[in-house]
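Q: My labmate handed me this sequence with no annotations at all. I'd like to see what the chain might look like in three dimensions before we decide whether it's worth expressing. Could you predict it?
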Amino acid sequence: MSRKSNLVLIGMPGSGKSTIGVILAKRTSHDFVDTDLVIQQMEQRSLQDILDKDGYLALRETEARVLQSLDLDNHVISTGGSAVYSDAAMQHLKRKGICIYLDVSVETLRARITDYDSRGIAKRPGQSFVDLFEERTRLYRRYADITIKADALNQDDVCSAILAALAGQ
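A: Here is what I predict for the chain of 169 residues:
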């Protein structure tokens, strides 16, 4: 089994990680896991409930713990948007995976995300979407092995761009 057999999708909420992850898993014959769903299963509550009751730092800590507990091979892994706040979690994912950053502009994300305040996004109280975007973009770029500019692409085109980038490595 390849040392880096996983494809790890990172990016902002609304960038398409979950949807593209499913399509990419089918096209590569990988299994698929959405870490937001794993967190919700393990915690037996929604991300928004964790945020509301325990705060954004608790959600980030929970996410880091869950990511570090994953021991997967041949998976497409869709991470939560705040996965990149934990260096330990990202290094753990990168040991067995190639990190693919789905780079989508703030304008496109704003058009896609209509439920910013109730979506379960781990952000500081009062933090604007633009501030969150700028803060996280630096982190996504730091951990990305591959960056896909996904604004003007449909889901199938994003998957094709990912496969082309992987073939070129």
